[in-house]
């Protein structure tokens, strides 16, 4: 193996060195932040600092930030709020989402639909972008909540969240966005987007795993997903995970100061790989948008006809190149990507897709290495496929 190249940053990022150091520096703050003694107050002060850093990153009020275990919990918290309202007889008894959401949303919506709840899935266009005209047609006086992600984890397509939120509010519905993939890569302002709820996870922007946030605008419906304690204003029971929260705060502080620079760096590597693949490998399909304004900067999803995505992944892994065939939360399924199928991609191309996702620690040398190793791998797999036929 000549080199190790990690290109699965949409699955998870490594913790930043500064975050690791910061966590260790604050190991002494192990007190229960709900306690009134000195060590408890010191821990609470650190948590308050982290809350402020996350709030600043998404242009939010500090007291609108609720710490959770991650975006999956944050999403489920929002959905449970509206499930309970519907169960309570609210005349708004329908939820609208899109066909390309993360499994944390899609699987929850499928579960609710199987239980008899009214769930509508808005279609997307050929680049995986929500069709706003069809979304508006689905929203009516019976709609309680609209949920559309900000940036897709498989294709990188940026969704028209600001416009979608305006449509929801126009019809009296609340709006939620899962912004997990977008945080740290593009500017995200809850005020500009005008969303009611927003979810994020720390491990997607070089923070710890197992820690995330639910942003909830002042005055929106709220009820705890987990009961048992007074933490987070009674909205999220459980003893505070001090070190993870401190790490999240540090990651947010770093991201806020580097988002523009990081965007440009990631986009340059993404484009270098895209152009190199198109020049060196015949018959490829780029999934999603190549418009910089419509695509998360570090995400490149490519289909290679006559080559299975899983085979490509395994061959690349042998060369020290780590990639994905889709969402890490859907790994283990041999089914083609539902995100790509929803965008109109044929089953064969969806099966032959690979996601390359760049991060802060990648370099142009990584791109060169992939472009050295990938073409012969695709040729080998295609030749094997031809011989089998």
Give descriptors for this structure.
alpha/beta, Aspartate Aminotransferase, domain 1, Aspartate Aminotransferase, domain 2, 2 domains, seven-stranded mixed sheet, three-stranded antiparallel sheet, 12 strands, 42% helix, 13% strand
- CATH fold name of the largest domain, please? Aspartate Aminotransferase, domain 2
Find the count of extended strands (DSSP E, 2+ residues): 12
The span between the termini is 32 Å
| Share of residues in helices | 40-55%
For the CA atoms, what is the radius of gyration? 21 Å
Mean pLDDT: 95
The CATH architecture category of the largest domain equals: 3-Layer(aba) Sandwich
Instruction: Look at the helices and sheets and give the structural class.
Output: alpha/beta
- Sketch the major β-sheet: 7 strands, mixed
Q: Can you count the helices?
A: 12
Low-confidence spans: none
Number of separate structural domains: 2
Instruction: Give the quaternary arrangement of the chains.
Output: single chain
SSE order in H/E notation?
Answer: EHHEHEHEHEHEHEEHEEHEHHEH
């Amino acid at each position: 193996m000549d080199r190790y190249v990690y290109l699965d940053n949409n699955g998870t990022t490594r913790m930043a060195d500064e975050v690791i150091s910061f966590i260790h520096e604050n190991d002494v703050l192990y007190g229960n932040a709900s306690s009134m003694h000195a060590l408890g107050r010191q821990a609470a002060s650190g948590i308050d600092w982290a809350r402020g850093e996350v709030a600043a990153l998404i242009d939010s009020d500090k007291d609108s930030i609720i710490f959770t275990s991650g975006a999956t919990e944050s999403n489920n918290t929002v959905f449970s709020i509206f499930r309970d309202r519907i169960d309570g007889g609210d005349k708004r008894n329908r939820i609208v989402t899109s066909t390309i959401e993360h499994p944390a949303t899609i699987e929850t919506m499928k579960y609710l639909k199987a239980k008899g709840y009214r769930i509508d899935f808005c279609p997307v266009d050929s680049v995986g972008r929500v069709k706003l005209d069809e979304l508006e047609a689905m929203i009516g006086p019976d709609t309680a909540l609209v949920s559309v992600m900000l940036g897709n984890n498989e294709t990188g397509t940026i969704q028209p969240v600001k416009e979608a939120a305006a449509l929801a509010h126009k019809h009296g519905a609340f709006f939620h966005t899962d912004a997990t993939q977008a945080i740290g890569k593009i500017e995200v302002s809850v005020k500009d987007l005008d969303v009611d709820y927003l979810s994020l996870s720390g491990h997607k922007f070089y923070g710890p795993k197992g820690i995330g946030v639910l942003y909830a605008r002042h005055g929106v419906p709220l009820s705890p997903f987990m009961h048992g304690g007074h933490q987070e204003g009674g909205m999220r029971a459980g003893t505070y995970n001090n070190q993870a929260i401190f790490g999240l705060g540090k990651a947010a502080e770093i991201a806020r100061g580097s988002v523009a620079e990081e965007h440009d760096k990631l986009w340059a590597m993404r484009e270098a790989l895209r152009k190199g693949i198109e020049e060196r490998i015949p018959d490829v399909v780029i999934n999603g948008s190549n418009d910089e304004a419509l695509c998360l900067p570090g995400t490149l999803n490519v289909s290679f006809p006559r080559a299975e995505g899983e085979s490509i992944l395994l061959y690349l892994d042998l060369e020290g190149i780590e990639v994905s065939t889709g969402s890490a939360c859907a790994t283990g399924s041999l089914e083609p990507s539902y995100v790509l199928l929803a965008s109109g991609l044929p089953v064969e191309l969806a099966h032959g897709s690979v996601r390359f996702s760049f991060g802060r620690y990648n370099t142009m040398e990584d791109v060169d290495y992939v472009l050295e190793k990938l073409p012969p791998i695709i040729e080998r797999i295609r030749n094997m496929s031809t011989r089998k036929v």
